[in-house]
Amino acid sequence: MPTPIGHALAGIAVAGAARSRMSPRHVAILAFCAAAPDLDLVLRLFDGLNHHRGPSHSVGAAVLASLAAWMLRRAGLGLPPPLLVGVAWASHVALDYLGLDTSPPAGVMALWPFSDAFLISPVSVFYDIPRSFSPAAIRHNLLAVSIEVLVLAPVAWLAWGGGRLRRASGAKGRG
Ligand SMILES: [Zn+2]
Question: Which domain covers residue 127, as residue numbers?
Answer without folding.
Answer: 4-174
